[in-house]
Each structure stands twice: as structure tokens, then as C-alpha cells.
Amino acid sequence: MIEVIAIIQIEGKEPHEEALRVSSLSTAENEIKNMVLDFNNSLRPNEKPRKFIRLKQQAVQLLHDWNKRNLSSLSDRNGIYDLMECSNCGLHYKAYGLSRRLGGYCYPERVCRTCNKQFKSEENCKKHNEKYHNAKRNIDDIKQKK
Q1: What was the pLDDT predicted at 123?
Q2: 117 strand-pairing partners
Q3: Strands 50-62, 16-22: parallel, antiparallel or unpaired by DSSP?
Q4: What whole-number distance in Å separates Cα of residue 65 and Cα of residue 27?
Q5: Is the Cβ–Cβ distance between 97 and 79 less than 8 Å?
Q6: How many CA atoms lie within 13 A of 48 on its CB side?
Q7: Reduced to 3 states, what is the DSSP secondary structure of residue 122?
Q8: N or C: at which end does the chain have fewer Cβ atoms within 10 angstroms?
Q9: What stretch of H or E contains 137?
Q10: Where are the beta strands (DSSP E) in the chain?
Q11: CB–CB of 66/84 below 8 Å?
Q12: Is there a contact between 51 and 61 (Cβ–Cβ < 8 Å)?
């Protein structure tokens, strides 16, 4: 999933920006048109229809796409958990109970795949890789994922 900024206009008002989640940039316009159509088809009294104007292309953000890595739940001294991994950046964690990390912005270039750490900047990740790991392997791995 990615988050895009769409320009939407409510009937009788100025166009405004809305952040919407879509499956891919190539299908974003059709998905948003369908969202607006569904919204307009289920208007409540006193609600005004909306119109999709355009996408604001430069404001696209990748979101974590969490997938379960194990077939059945695991357990340790803290309880029952599932191993979750983001298919975009490779970050993984233990999800205890029914809670799941939903959403969240994904920065594949800020994740060290060797030790599963996420950094505040791409530069900090590079410094970490140079100091503790074979930096070339981690950087090449990130480039292959893109």
C-alpha cells in the first residue's frame, strides 16, 4: 500500500488535498475514482457529493506491508506471538496477542537488514553498515528491492 495525496472538490467548495491509501501508483487514479463514486452513492442527508480532480504526484509515501512469516503462532515467556515482516523494507518484529502494527511509513533505505534496525536517516544507516557490517552487501540488497 502507498499513500497518495489527491485533490478532491466538495460540491460548492474549493478543492482540497486528502491523503488516501491505494495499492499502487499505476492504479491510484482508478481506485480513487471508485472511492469517490462509492462515497457519492452512499451520501447521508445534507452531505454534498465529491469530485476527484487530480493526483498530487510528488507526495507519494510507501507504507509498511506487514505479512505473517510463520504458519502457526509461536510462544515464549512473554506469550503467544506471530513473526511479522514488511515486504517493502524487510523490517520484522514479534506481534503479541491480537495487536498488529498497522500502517506506518516505510523507508527501505533506512533499514539494516542484517540486524533489523531502523534509522532516522539514510546516512545513519550507511554509517552503521560501514562500522558493523559489510556495507556493500546491505546497500546492494536495498537497491535490488527497489
Answers
A1: 86
A2: 112
A3: unpaired
A4: 17
A5: yes
A6: 9
A7: helix
A8: C
A9: helix 135-145
A10: 2-10, 16-22, 50-62, 66-68, 74-76, 79-86, 92-96, 111-112, 117-118
A11: yes
A12: no
